[in-house]
Amino acid sequence: MKPAVPAHYTGVIVEPDDGLEPILGFIASAKRSLRIKQFEVSEPALVDAIKLAKRRGIAVRVMLNPLRASGQRDNDATYEALKAGGIRVDWTPPRFMVTHEKSIVVDDERVLISTFNLSAKYFSQTRDYGIVTKEAAQVAEVAECFDADWKRAPFAPGKERGLLWSDDNARAAMARFIDGAKISLDIQNPKFMDSTILDRVLMARERGVRIRLLFGGRHGTTPGDVVDTFSSLRVLQRAGIKVHRQKNPKLHAKLMVADSKRAIVGSQNIDRVAFDFRRELGVVVSARETVQRLLDTFVKDWDSAKPYAVPDPMEPLAHDPEEHPPDPGFRHE
Q: Cα–Cα distances in Å, from 172 out to 188, 250, 251?
């Protein structure tokens, strides 16, 4: 068994490599309070860990996304289980089409911001990341947003705190991040559907930045999103940008690394809907060891992936023997 994350831990969690224990340890490290806002929670061990925190006297509040864009409800059973355990639990604000944010604030001292949901497959099947930070301004801002969403009150992020909030500053912050790349830009994302970000990537290529894109293929993507993503990737390929298709672990992560020195990790797909209509959260990191582990994982995935001849978007459902079989439980929201 991998060691639990100690209370002082800061850095990166890589899934499925690190498994469930770091998240269990993070929840168990709480001494006073837990604020948990998640798109999906169904892993029994994590539900039990949240209920145990309540029994230990921790002030626990949980917000869960009520339904996917498709209308499917994934969190009803968890909502009822937490409510039965005496935990203050609520649905995320209805003004957002979806709340896709994945955050856990412990004791107002540290926060976990992740690309993974709190469900079993994200700790066993998918490439995902989590960032744990003790940066006081970042922790305070995530807690502030939680409280605002809990109260259905307005929230406006501060400036230059290294957090990407949708539906507010995320697109502009990601564009600035790309604009700052001088040597290299590595991107791992299931979707490529926002014209502003794609334009920024092309601008980076034009000024000589080496760009590598890791994409997960059609698997888990709706037919409409496939058409837009394939079209975007073909434009990027014509500009000389290399695209590889990652098969295993399944790609669910949302990662950018610039110049091997800075990285973005968060819930935002490169998708207009993610920037403009959903509650999403990402973080910029520059700690050397954290960025290095993210980059090492990207390179490992890149080297094991194959160059991808992106299909004609007008024939997106053509048979592809390399594609995963359909899995209704794996969808990029």
A: 19, 28, 25
